[in-house]
Amino acid sequence: MTPLTPPPIDYAAVAPLLIVLGAACVSVLVEAFLPRHQRWPAQVALSVVAIVVAGVTLGVYAGDAPAQGVITLGSTMAVDMPTLFLWGTLLVLGFGSLLLIADRSVEPGGAFVASALERASAGAAPGSTTGPSGVDPEHVDRSYGAPGDAPTMQTEVFPFTLFALGGMMAFVAANDLLTMFVALEVLSLPLYLMCGLARRRRLLSQEAAVKYFLLGAFASAFFLYGVALLYGYAGSVRLSAIAEAAVGTDRSDALLFGGLALLIVGLLFKGSVGPFHTWTPDVYQGAPTPATAFMAACTKVAAFGAIARVLYVAFGSTRWEWRGVLWAVAIASMVIGAVLGLTQTDLKRMIAYSSIAHAGFLLLGTMAITQAGTSGTLFYLLAYGFTTIAVFGIISLVRTADGEATHLSQWAGLAKRSPLLAGVMTFLLLALAGIPLTSGFTAKFAVFSAALSDGMAPLVVVALVASAIAAFFYLRVVVLMYFSETPADGPTVSVPGAFTTVAITLGVVVTLLLGVAPTLVLDWAGAGGFTG
Amino acid sequence: MSPTNYLLLSGLLFTIGAVGVLVRRNAIVVFMCIELMLNAVNLSLVTFARINGTLDGQVMAFFVMVVAAAEVVVGLAIIMSIFRTRRSSSVDDANLLKY
Amino acid sequence: MLDPYLALLFMALLAGAFALFSVTAAPYIGPRRYNRAKLDSYECGIEPSPKPVVGTGRMPVAYYLTAMLFILFDIELVFLYPYAVAADSLGLFGLVAVTVYIATIGFVYFYEWRRGGLEWD
């Protein structure tokens, strides 16, 4: 037989991805072979080192990377400037979320549930009430493990985080739709599981996991059918091959646009855009808060990185045909997020609706198939991710005896009790609303001006109105914190441990820096376009 | 027989699966409907591979199968864990999270 | 020539010998612990009685766990068949790739084994 020439691999370019996925494999082995009490420190050290090393490798490579990017691994990965920027974004946001996940001081033992073995032994202990039919999970499923022991957590969340992070990195770099699909699943499956691991409110958390899983699998089936149709159209799933096939051809447009529609539904679902958002509030509320932070920040980056690449590389030439539909989607997303956000009484749900509105704004940037649109989207993702992580970090600090106090009424008068926390939260909410001197303003400005220059003026008007409506519900929280009477049985503000402090500080500092001096990062984001 | 018929069948199966997801109430059945959708995709991938005369579609079907298996395991584990705490796998009973 | 068929014949002989060996060796080296479950009509899985499964009955969780593990490890084989067919032309690169693939699955297997996923009770 004729020997096959192996595809050339540019190891330097894909090194960050390999490091993260390799560390994920090692951390599975750590889970397998280390005794229980050593797992948490080992996993934290391993994950932090892996992310830092991957970041340094990325920085070294990005220093003298070719401006037009490289396509490697048999044309399945495109490591171009947007990819490098998104990888950097994912790594720093992943680092921030990892700190929140690893924290064990706010909630004794961490926000994630103890391992099943300990819970089972605690459930069988005398004194626990198990009715014959009405099984009360709070009693059987003792959330802190065996009584008397120091609380532990399920350290599997660390390999989950690393695998999800690796999947996201592969997702934004994928140069063909099959790689994109596999990466989509690699990032989704750990996230489904992380949702169901909350220590408190087990049923709520498990319910969120089931919903996220069923809807996520439904969406990825749509994505896949889109891939099949596009393969039928172009005879290849490479993004550039689809673009070539679409130019001057007599092939059936039904396959091309049917495929695009199904594909984009799957991607918009992941980005929690518009009418495909139904999972978002439930999952944000039910999942353990650190996992929510990870999901909200990093999944958004991954999803919109992929949407931008697909639209830019594969469908840039046919943009006049599909843009009308996406206009409707963007408007729906902004309106749904802003209006339904007004009616929320739970803080985590409110942030979820805010993320839906933000997804609409982001879609504006991705629809503008221009250099400015790409760089605006990239900048927006970085800014939004940091603010979100800090917001969820703050939410995890305000607690009552039975867990986090996420109901809005519980936040009344919080400024009197903890001025610092209320001040930081106010700053972050203003950033989400897009007030000048915060990263939110710079990001919105970049995206809206890109959309405006690409002929989407009516959409920008809608976006501005939606921003104004959304600003109202952010300000409502601020007013509640500063100008309301403190309820008698109000929540307490925990003193954050080192990890949470670092994560929140990181988020706040970056939010401020990107608002005051965004030039450097804007330059990075605009360093080059997608290659296909 | 024209390969187009397979595409029609695949579209039909995909639709049946999608409708099933929307109307059925048992998490396991919903899940089976999703699997039906994935397998409908496999059918069209293989058919397109035949129409286009390239092998890529068949290879993709392998990947879809493997990913679907991983998804099955994760999904069943999640459904099992909720079943063990609440003794029901109906998606209607999962109603703690609301607007 | 007969060459390709010869390999097939060896394969068949090997398979037959392995089956014969397993069946004859099992009674001698396997442990024998009879219990009620062994005498049931289905040795594993849901008990075939009219007992209600939901409500008062218990779920045989171990059965589902094993089934899920089986699905996972079984389906990964799908990539080994194409490799086996094309192993010659893929050369060293293919060998390294498939080794990495198997090692990755091996990690998961170690996890499974160390955390007691392979124990029935």
Automatic annotation (TrEMBL), chain A:
Domain of life of the native organism: Bacteria
Reaction it catalyzes: a quinone + NADH + 5 H(+)(in) = a quinol + NAD(+) + 4 H(+)(out)
Coiled-coil portions: none
Membrane topology of the entry: Multi-pass membrane protein
GO terms classed as biological process: ATP synthesis coupled electron transport
Region entry Disordered, spans: 123-148
Alphabetized Pfam families for the sequence: Proton_antipo_M
Segments of skewed composition (Low complexity): 123-134
Cellular component terms (Gene Ontology): endomembrane system; plasma membrane
The enzyme's E.C. designation: 7.1.1.-
UniProt KW keywords: Cell membrane, Membrane, NAD, Quinone, Translocase, Transmembrane, Transmembrane helix, Transport
Cell compartment(s), UniProt: Cell membrane; Endomembrane system; Membrane
Predominant location: membrane
InterPro entries to which the protein is assigned, alphabetical: NADH-Q_OxRdtase_suN/2, ND/Mrp_TM
GO MF terms held by the record: NADH dehydrogenase (quinone) (non-electrogenic) activity; NADH dehydrogenase (ubiquinone) activity; quinone binding
Keyword presence, Translocase: yes
Residues covered by the NADH:quinone oxidoreductase/Mrp antiporter transmembrane domain: 174-469
Bilayer-spanning residue ranges: 12-32, 44-63, 83-102, 157-174, 210-234, 254-273, 293-312, 324-343, 378-398, 419-439, 459-483, 495-517
HAMAP family given in the database record: NDH1_NuoN_1
PANTHER family: NADH DEHYDROGENASE
Family membership noted in the UniProt record: Belongs to the complex I subunit 2 family.
Protein purpose: NDH-1 shuttles electrons from NADH, via FMN and iron-sulfur (Fe-S) centers, to quinones in the respiratory chain. The immediate electron acceptor for the enzyme in this species is believed to be a menaquinone. Couples the redox reaction to proton translocation (for every two electrons transferred, four hydrogen ions are translocated across the cytoplasmic membrane), and thus conserves the redox energy in a proton gradient.
Summary of subunit composition and partner proteins: NDH-1 is composed of 14 different subunits. Subunits NuoA, H, J, K, L, M, N constitute the membrane sector of the complex.
Protein name: NADH-quinone oxidoreductase subunit N
From TrEMBL, chain B:
Main location per the UniProt record: membrane
GO CC term (a single one): plasma membrane
Subcellular locations according to the entry: Cell membrane; Membrane
GO molecular function: NADH dehydrogenase (quinone) (non-electrogenic) activity; quinone binding
InterPro entries, per database record: NADH_UbQ_OxRdtase_chain4L/K, NUOK/Mnh_C1-like
Topological relation to the membrane, as annotated: Multi-pass membrane protein
Keywords: Cell membrane, Membrane, NAD, Quinone, Translocase, Transmembrane, Transmembrane helix, Transport
Highest taxon, organism lineage: Bacteria
EC number(s) given by UniProt: 7.1.1.-
Reactions performed catalytically: a quinone + NADH + 5 H(+)(in) = a quinol + NAD(+) + 4 H(+)(out)
Transmembrane segments: 6-23, 28-49, 61-83
Coiled-coil blocks: none
Subunit structure: NDH-1 is composed of 14 different subunits. Subunits NuoA, H, J, K, L, M, N constitute the membrane sector of the complex.
Described purpose of this protein according to its UniProt entry: NDH-1 shuttles electrons from NADH, via FMN and iron-sulfur (Fe-S) centers, to quinones in the respiratory chain. The immediate electron acceptor for the enzyme in this species is believed to be a menaquinone. Couples the redox reaction to proton translocation (for every two electrons transferred, four hydrogen ions are translocated across the cytoplasmic membrane), and thus conserves the redox energy in a proton gradient.
Similarity section: Belongs to the complex I subunit 4L family.
This protein's name: NADH-quinone oxidoreductase subunit K
From TrEMBL, chain C:
Compartments where located: Cell membrane; Membrane
Enzyme class: translocase
Residues spanning the membrane: 61-83, 90-111
Topology of this chain in the membrane: Multi-pass membrane protein
EC number: 7.1.1.-
Broad class of where this protein is predominantly found: membrane
InterPro entries the record matches: NAD(P)H_OxRDtase_bac/plastid, NADH_UbQ/plastoQ_OxRdtase_su3, NDAH_ubi_oxred_su3_sf
Protein keywords: Cell membrane, Membrane, NAD, Quinone, Translocase, Transmembrane, Transmembrane helix, Transport
GO MF: NADH dehydrogenase (quinone) (non-electrogenic) activity; NADH dehydrogenase (ubiquinone) activity; quinone binding
Superkingdom field: Bacteria
Pfam family for this entry, one: Oxidored_q4
A GO cellular component entry from the record: NADH dehydrogenase complex
HAMAP family per the UniProt record, alphabetical: NDH1_NuoA (MF_01394)
Record-linked NCBIfam families: PRK07928.1 (NF005922)
Assembly with partners or alone: NDH-1 is composed of 14 different subunits. Subunits NuoA, H, J, K, L, M, N constitute the membrane sector of the complex.
Family: Belongs to the complex I subunit 3 family.
Protein name: NADH-quinone oxidoreductase subunit A
